[in-house]
């Protein structure tokens, strides 16, 4: 099922538009992450796709057909939310079979068939043996897997997941991510997955759509959006960032008067820009004559595999963050107050 979101606008009474002219094509069988900060419109977009919310303007096409006026049932979507309320008084098996058992009689499968399907789905989400438990007797991760099995029971054309692992602890989230990717690869459902966690989006999805203030900033594979962010917002949202004011003059770049080599692929006319660089793209410069930023170490923190250093540079409002890989050496005797020279290996320039 291919979903096309075309010119979607959604305004709630008396508020700024929650979605503002969103165009997005979700390819058949892909796992797409909708990534953005809280309040950016992710849930609203998911609800518009599901038919739980009608857009103020625009259309939704399911496999090329206008589905904008179809109801939730007619769109046949499977849903999982962050706090998915399973029915507390029902066993796991009955929870999974609920969507089928609640159908009108004419297209309700017989009881034995519902049971068989529910058992099959519980095997798929690796919960065999827990059929007769109640939700209270399950861990958080198991409950979300029951919720997924329940969403899959109606044989949805699309699976919509709204921060489904948001309420779980970090370790369980990581396990469920792998597990969901694997499930997706086995079932091949077109899946839209909402998250505000960039690591989750990067690790899990085929493509990421980044939303901000009701608008789509960029869509692409994890590698594309990480390496070629469309703008400063996308760059900053995807990972730790140093933002430095830079001036380009005659094809040369200067940060607080220090020349920095013009990074590969950067072509910018003379003017002022915001230079965005990841902490791991800053390296200690060995040679005295090598171009680089000069500063003084502030905090030095050791964490597994790398050393994080904050460096104060005259003329910059905030310290620069560096991440030095331990295996590169040269970090063991870094102390606070030590002079450093740093080269910026990769960066992007965006409008200041
Ligand atoms: P996200 O899921 O990215 O956190 P939402 O889609 O929930 O963002 O919300 C986007 C914006 O729309 C927010 O400003 C929110 O307050 C507003 N909003 C969402 N739902 C409603 C509603 N039912 N009524 C009024 N405003 C809403
Ligand atoms: Mg939300």
Overall description:
Helix content is 25%, strand content 33%. The chain is elongated, with a radius of gyration of 25 Å. A hairpin with a 2-residue loop joins strand 4 (57-62) and strand 5 (65-66). It has a six-stranded mixed sheet, with helices on both faces. A five-stranded antiparallel sheet has the order 13-12-11-14-20. Strands 15-19-16-17-18 form a five-stranded antiparallel sheet, with no helix packed on it. The protein has 352 residues and is α+β, with helices and mostly antiparallel strands. The model has no long low-confidence stretch (mean pLDDT 91). The protein has two domains: 3-236, 3-Layer(aba) Sandwich (Rossmann fold); 241-351, OB fold (Dihydrolipoamide Acetyltransferase, E2P) (Beta Barrel). The longest helix is centred in the middle third of the chain and has 18 residues, at 170-187. It has helices at 42-50, 72-75, 92-101, 111-124, 140-153, 170-187, 198-204, 222-227, 232-237, and strands at residues 3-10, 19-26, 31-35, 57-62, 65-66, 77-81, 158-162, 190-195, 207-212, 215-220, 242-249, 252-255, 258-260, 271-277, 282-284, 293-303, 306-312, 320-325, 339-344, 348-351. It binds adenosine-5'-diphosphate and magnesium ion. Magnesium ion is lined by residues 42-43. One of its GO terms (biological process) is quaternary ammonium group transport.
Biggest sheet, spatial arrangement of strands: 6-7-8-3-9-10
Task: Calculate the mean pLDDT score and round it.
Answer: 91
The gyration radius over C-alpha positions equals: 25 Å
Terminal CA distance reads: 41 Å
Which percent band covers the strand fraction? 25-35%
Number of strands: 20
Query: What is the fold-level CATH name, i.e. the topology of the largest domain?
Result: Rossmann fold
How can the largest sheet be summarized? 6 strands, mixed
**CATH class descriptor name of the largest domain:** Alpha Beta
CATH architectural group of the largest domain: 3-Layer(aba) Sandwich
DSSP summary: helix tally: 9
């Amino acid at each position: 099922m291919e979903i096309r979101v075309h010119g979607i606008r959604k305004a709630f009474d008396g508020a700024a538009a929650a979605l503002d002219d969103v165009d997005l094509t979700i390819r058949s069988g892909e796992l797409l992450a909708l990534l953005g900060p809280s309040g950016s419109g992710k849930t609203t977009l998911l609800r518009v796709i599901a038919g739980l919310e009608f857009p103020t303007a625009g259309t939704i096409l399911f496999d090329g057909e206008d589905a904008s006026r179809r109801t939730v049932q007619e769109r046949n979507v499977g849903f999982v939310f962050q706090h998915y309320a399973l029915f507390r008084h029902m066993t796991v098996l009955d929870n999974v079979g609920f969507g089928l058992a609640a159908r009108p009689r004419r297209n309700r499968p017989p009881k034995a068939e519902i049971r068989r399907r529910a058992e099959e789905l519980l095997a798929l989400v690796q919960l065999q043996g827990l059929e007769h438990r109640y939700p209270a007797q399950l861990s958080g991760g198991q409950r979300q897997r029951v919720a997924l099995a329940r969403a899959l029971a109606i044989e949805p054309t699309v699976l919509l997941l709204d921060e489904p692992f948001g309420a779980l602890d970090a370790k369980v989230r990581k396990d469920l991510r792998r597990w969901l990717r694997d499930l997706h690869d086995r079932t091949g459902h077109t899946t839209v997955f909402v998250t505000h966690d960039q690591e989750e989006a990067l690790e899990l999805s085929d493509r990421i759509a980044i939303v901000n203030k009701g608008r789509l900033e960029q869509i692409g594979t994890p590698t594309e959006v990480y390496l070629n962010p469309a703008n400063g917002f996308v760059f900053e949202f995807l990972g730790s960032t140093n933002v430095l004011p830079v001036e380009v003059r005659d094809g040369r770049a200067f940060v607080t008067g220090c020349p920095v080599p013009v990074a590969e692929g950067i072509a910018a006319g003379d003017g002022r820009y915001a230079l965005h660089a990841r902490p791991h793209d800053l390296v200690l410069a060995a040679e005295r004559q090598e171009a680089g930023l000069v500063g003084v170490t502030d905090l030095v923190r050791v964490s597994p595999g790398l050393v994080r250093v904050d460096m104060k540079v005259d003329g910059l409002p905030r310290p620069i963050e560096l991440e030095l890989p331990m295996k590169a050496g040269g970090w063991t005797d870094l102390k606070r107050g030590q002079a450093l020279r740093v080269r910026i290996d990769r960066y992007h320039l965006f409008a200041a």
